[in-house]
Design brief:
Layout lengths: L11 H6 L3 H21 L1 H11 L2 H7 L4 H33 L3 H33 L10 H9 L4 H6 L6 H7 L2 H7 L1
Length: 187
């Protein structure tokens, strides 16, 4: 008696789960954006439905009267969970990544990473300057309160101070505060 091979899943979910991760992320981005636009346009209808469908005693007990009031804690929870796992994922990724490379190749990878970082930073600067020249942000802006911005800019740390802060004096403090660059420098 021969065993039959497991049946292949068919349908849209099989197509989705067998596709490339980048494609799945892009699909989720498009679907999420579309749902966000639909919900934003229909928010007044949804809020009036929520208010009319729940008894006033329940609304008073919850202290919430709109869908945004109901959904904001869920969004905050999601962002907090992402922030919670960010530092452990970065530390584990760096440790596993560097331990899987032979010491002879580690220096080459480090140099390539620094060069890649410098090139992408240069591209970001060029794109930012091009956008500033093309779109002229701030044109027509009332600058009557510019003295506060000038004072704040005068108190900004120097470039040497910024570079010095990349090397942590206490790596555990940097981990507790979620400071990414000192964590990467420490690992």
């Amino acid at each position: 008696m021969s065993e039959n091979p497991p049946a292949k899943k068919r349908g849209i979910f099989a197509l989705y789960f067998n596709s490339n991760l980048l494609l799945r992320i892009m699909i989720a981005l498009v679907v999420g954006s579309a749902l966000g636009m639909i919900c934003k346009q229909n928010l007044a209808i949804a809020d009036s439905f929520l208010i009319s469908s729940l008894p006033q005693a329940v609304l008073d007990w919850l202290g919430k009267t709109t869908w945004i009031d109901f959904l904001t804690p869920l969004g905050d929870l999601f962002v907090r969970l992402l922030k919670m796992i960010m530092v452990p994922i970065i530390i584990c990724s760096l440790i596993v990544g560097t331990s899987s490379i032979s010491p002879a190749h580690l220096g080459k990878v480090g140099v390539k990473a620094i060069i890649f970082y410098a090139i992408t930073t240069l591209f970001a600067i060029v794109i930012g300057l091009a956008c500033a020249f093309i779109f002229s942000p701030g044109s027509g802006l009332d600058l009557s309160d510019a003295s506060k911005a000038v004072e704040k800019a005068a108190n900004a740390p120097s470039m040497s101070k910024i570079l010095l802060n990349i090397i942590p004096t206490n790596p555990f403090d940097s981990i507790a505060k979620g400071e990414i660059l000192p964590i990467i420098a420490f690992c």
